[in-house]
Amino acid sequence: MGSGIRPARTARSGRTPRLSTNVARPAQPPRSPTTAAPADTGLSRLSLMIRNFAAPTTLITALLFFFGWSHAYWFFDYFGVNSTTLGLTTQDYLMRSQDSLFIPLAASACLFAVYLFCRRMFREHVLPQIGPENRRRLMIASMVVGFALVAAGLLTIVIATPLRMIVGAPGLCMVGGIALIVSAVRSRRTAQASTESAEVASADVLTAGEWGAVFVLVGVGLFWAVADYSAAVGTGRAIEQVETFSEQPSVSVYSDKSLGLAAPGVVELTCPAPDAAYHFRYDGLKLILQSGNQYLLLPASWNRTHGAAFLLPRSDANRIDFFPPEAIPPAHSCG
């Protein structure tokens, strides 16, 4: 016999009902405004537009194509040949772009890494020790230097300033000037906003339109600098190739008809034999390029004073033989 009181059983299941363990919880305090979602700043809206309208793959391909085109244009321009007549393909331009973009990309990456490091060190160790008056002077100096750099870069468009003698200098001046101006404007607006409220100070100090103008100007400056460098590389590669003509294979052109390749150093041989496959042979040539079913040939003694370039169509009526630089083509032989 038990004297304790047992809980009643339910009529249907015969089981003892469990006591509810739910305890009333206090109401949660409203979320602090500081934990709210970040505001939609002008820079974030501009980044979204760029991602939507300019796919990174398409943009990079366009940049490579442009730089390769500039490289090819100035390379063949040194020989007096218009590159559009050669029928270069997109692959040709993309391959040439590697020659002109390697150093600028490596240098840009290194400079950007140095900029980020210096900026962090300046904000953490130098800026806290500068008083408000010195900060204002520093912002004014940054604005003045920035505008001076931008003006110096733009001035080279209409006046032959010494900056034209330095490859890429005008474009880099524009990029550096814009960076200094933006830094000074952001610092000034942040200082003004911090005196009003912390919420305003945390917002982006540049609008979407201002960020768009900054990106356009910086992009133009970078295009300008790298295109200038690409043109210089193209011309430099042409000069190097002419200087190494003696180390390149020699070319002999065979034809069943006279091609009239008249230039200093080019020798025409005639084969009167009726059973000869080709009746004319031309020695003293160097092959520069084969593209678009045509050959670009230069005399081995070519120079810009009295040099000539030959475009020879690729066909069964012509044949090209190659010889090592020190080899002598067979005499009086037309194949």
From TrEMBL:
TM spans (from-to): 53-76, 101-118, 138-160, 166-185, 205-227
Classification via SUPFAM superfamilies: MFS general substrate transporter
Tagged with keyword Membrane: yes
Keywords assigned by UniProt, alphabetized: Membrane, Transmembrane, Transmembrane helix
Stretches the record annotates as Disordered: 1-39
InterPro entries assigned to the protein according to its UniProt record, in alphabetical order: MFS_trans_sf (IPR036259)
Keyword Membrane belongs to the record: yes
Signal peptide range in chain numbering: none
Protein name in UniProt: Uncharacterized protein
The organism of origin for this protein: Nocardia fluminea
